[in-house]
Amino acid sequence: MKQYLRLLPAVHELQKDPRFETLKKKFDLHETQLTEFLQQEVGSLRKSLLAEETLIEKATPDFTGQIFKSAELHIQIWQEDRLERVINGTGTVLHTNLGRSRLSDAAIAHVVRTAENYSNLEYQLVAGKRGSRHQIIEDLVVQATGAEAAMVVNNNAAAVFLILSALAKKQEVIVSRGQLVEIGGSFRVSSIMEESGARLVEVGTTNKTHLVDYEQAITEETAMMMKVHTSNFKMIGFTETVETAKLVELTGKHQHVIFYEDLGSGALYDFKQHGIGDEPLVREVIESGVDLVSFSGDKLLGGPQAGLIAGKKELVERLKKHQLARVLRVDKMTLAAMEETLKSYLAGAEKIAELPTIRDIIRPAEDIKVQAQLFIRNLQSKSSNYHSELQESTSQIGGGTMPGVEIPTYIAAITHKRLSAAQLSLCLRKVKPAIVSRIQEDQVCIDFRTINFSELDDLLAGFVACQ
């Protein structure tokens, strides 16, 4: 193969080829940028020849044509969006891998307005002087939770880290062994506590922790008692935990001890009224007397990725002044989305139901059934390669939220005449927009809980493309 190396074209020769200008115009590339692509292709081909990995079919191969063809393919791939739209046919509402909560129309519109214009992010318009981004939505969080004060950081893990670093560094933090959880990305409460500089004091056992365990652990070195909501798993059987109210009463006897509850998902809407889960409401936890709570913005709240902190004013002010608050602050688009999301909660039940996350979780199974039936009829009329049937099934909440909770739903269970379920699922992930399904009993299953009526045409087109 090495004898073919001399046939490789020089880059300056490629620049003179008419195809150079053609590609430059087609992809709107700068000359330098296109040259870099071609250099990469020449280098890749040279490496392949040296390794004898390239099959040569002609005595005088057209390396120039091969390079331009390969470059065009790679430029097309490079110009595609890395972050692309996906149709979620899994039925998992808060699918972490698919971006969790979808934003409401109002939140999306406010993000766009904020992104395309200047804003008063850190400017007091009336006073004409510098302001603080903490003030933009604090009053809305306070109204929604009943807390004295609030702030927002970039996710709930950041909220946990800030609280421990600012309020318990080099001091003891008491946590039940049954709450030393690990969530996605190997985030462990024990590890984040170590990084924050706080000293972990474990009490109780994995399955049982009593009030006396906390009482006996409190010393002059205790800065905080931390309760972690086990939102990503459920422990059943011979178990016991201490209620928030009792821990509030206990810390009330020790003025130097802060009681902080990490709520994880954090619900402002009562899903229990629909018979879904037993997630505690943030307002109820605040009213019980805890000093601080933190929770996610992009889980049950239905907003953008963020970590919300609410509680006693004196403690929140200390957090705002800590150096980490700047490191962990959110940007203007996140604040815009969170503002509209919180306003929906404060506007009443009708507006709350318009939040996609809330809407999808409480959506009646009969509504989903109608949508699934419509899709099945349309698919059968478009292609004879598919067999589709309506089946009863269950959806999951997802995002480490409400473990064990399953909501009744309807799915389209689909098989293909030639393709296996795995092959069809792969094909669907390659279409635009990509369709993510789940496989059960060698059938590709589409759960319509997480699919809007406006997505049905694209969903159908994806299946037709794979026929």
UniProtKB/TrEMBL annotation:
Keyword ATP-binding applies: no
Pathway as given in its UniProt record: Aminoacyl-tRNA biosynthesis; selenocysteinyl-tRNA(Sec) biosynthesis; selenocysteinyl-tRNA(Sec) from L-seryl-tRNA(Sec) (bacterial route): step 1/1
InterPro entries according to UniProt: PyrdxlP-dep_Trfase, PyrdxlP-dep_Trfase_major, SelA-like, SelA_trans
GO molecular function: transferase activity
Cofactor(s) needed for function: pyridoxal 5'-phosphate
Entry-annotated residues carrying N6-(pyridoxal phosphate)lysine: K299
EC number annotated for this UniProt entry: 2.9.1.1
Catalyses which reaction(s): L-seryl-tRNA(Sec) + selenophosphate + H(+) = L-selenocysteinyl-tRNA(Sec) + phosphate
Enzyme class: transferase
Superkingdom: Bacteria
Keyword Protein biosynthesis applies: yes
Subcellular location(s) per record: Cytoplasm
Keywords: Cytoplasm, Protein biosynthesis, Pyridoxal phosphate, Selenium, Transferase
Family: Belongs to the SelA family.
Summary of the function given for this chain in its UniProt record: Converts seryl-tRNA(Sec) to selenocysteinyl-tRNA(Sec) required for selenoprotein biosynthesis.
Protein name: L-seryl-tRNA(Sec) selenium transferase
Gene (UniProt): selA
